[in-house]
Amino acid sequence: MSNFFTPLVEAQHTVLEACSVLGKEKVGIIESLGRTLAEDLIAKRANPPWNNSAMDGFAVRNADLPTDHLVPEPVTLNVIEEVPAGRSATRSVGRGDAIRIMTGAPVPAGADTVIKIEDTEPTKTHVKIFSAVKTGSHIRKQGEDITKGECLIPRGTTIRPAEIGILAMMGKPLIFVHQRPQVAILSTGDELMDLDDQFDEDKITNSNGYAFAAQTREAGGTPIVLGISKDRPEDLKEKISEASNADILVISGGVSMGDYDFTKLVLSELGKNVHAWKLAIKPGQPVTFGTIRDTLCFGLPGNPVSSMITFEQLVRPVILKMSGQTNLFRLTIQATFQETFSKRPDRRHFLRGIVRIENGIPTVRTTGNQGSGILTSMLKANALIDIPESVEQLKPGDMVSVQMLSEHVPHISS
């Protein structure tokens, strides 16, 4: 590979070194879904907080039950109280006693076993029990799920519905999470029109800006859509000034070598530590990166697929890191390639792919035309097939690495 190209891993290292985790803010637990926890959640009480019944039935002393033989002799016990969930017994279970108990109610003092209602024949004052069970049957022990003082959820965890359930169980209506990065999004080009502009057959719609906004939101950032800049340095500078409060600025277009490509020039004038990379990837070769004050600035290609791929590989990990995440890259799996493919050994290719599980084995094929302007190749894809620089040819049956873009994978059986 020529030194003229910059390896993707080198660029990823540079952009990740340039960013840091944002501060924290307190939000309600429902609003915390998908956010990154910024504090350790320590259990302030055990769960269950006391021994409780796992069944509707009767709390008894195991010593009073039928003996364990093939045909147990039924026993009759005195029913001295009834305990619904949410209340505690006022009496202890003594010899020959039983307390009717509902699921979730605390096990009364003196009792060491719960008998299911189905194994009894009850009246208001007595209960006949027909089965022998082990001591402790149908009792949830205090602390068997959570012990007081343990770290239930460590900081850095992405909050899912299960975490919200634990937060509620622990009585935490508010929780500290890391702030979301503010991502300003700017598209460049005289050829662009926006969705609310008057239709012009000589122009194309600004799809990149909306795709970036969606990618930003999916990664956990907050998009700020700045619209379209004309192909003039002064217009680009004016638009960039609107991103002064953003954590990240992403500019689409103007990073190549054309007469009207000013993104690289303007970022070099306004910013510092500016890199003008020719990445060793396809699609998505030209990328500019630097900082303007405290804002990380990315200049990405204008072709729709190139822009989405470079956003995926460079901007998304930065958003995740700033959000407090530690897993910064997509889940990568191995799959069986189902086509033939060839390339030069100079660039790492990201083919848009469709992963399926066929008879329990992951397989992948391309979405078809892989041109950098074929946005439908991203529409059809649930994964990116990651072909290393050194690989020149693939044939059906070869194993390849794929970056999963979706959790939804079709299953096919023969």
Q: What is the CATH-assigned architecture of the largest domain? A: 3-Layer(aba) Sandwich
Helix content estimate: 10-25%
Strands side by side in the biggest sheet = 7-4-6-5-9-8
CATH topology type of the largest domain: Molybdenum Cofactor Biosythetic Enzyme, Chain A
Q: Classify the beta-strand content into a percent band.
A: 25-35%
Shape: elongated
The unreliable regions are: none
How many structural units, i.e. domains?
A: 4
- The termini sit apart by 42 Å
CATH classification, class level of the largest domain = Alpha Beta
Figure out the total of helices.
7
* CATH superfamily heading of the largest domain: MoaB/Mog-like domain
Biggest sheet descriptor: 6 strands, mixed
Radius of gyration: 31 Å
Secondary structure category = alpha/beta
Averaged pLDDT: 93
Please count the beta strands (DSSP E, at least 2 residues each). 29
